[in-house]
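Predict structure. Chain length: 96.
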Amino acid sequence: MSRVPENGEEMASEASGPVAGEAAQAKASPVRSGPSWKQVAVAAGGFAVTVVGAVVVTLVATHNSARRANAAAYAHGLLDGAEAARNGYDFDEDDD
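Prediction complete.
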């Protein structure tokens, strides 16, 4: 049984010839190798977040240890000053 093609089917069969295939191929975007710009952006964003996180953690750890070191130095300075005062050191003598 043969069927009579409708207008849309007839047009589709005519447009699917070799000339139409070449035109469709020319309109298609070129094939690219490598990751898309979105993948690169996501990777760069993830890397930036990781770096910022590492910097923040390092600064917090350094700040805490620096505060402890400064507090210890301040306490030692107070103790040295108290010992010097007990030994009779005149603190106003150096103000000449």
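Summary: Helices lie at 7-15, 18-27, 37-86.
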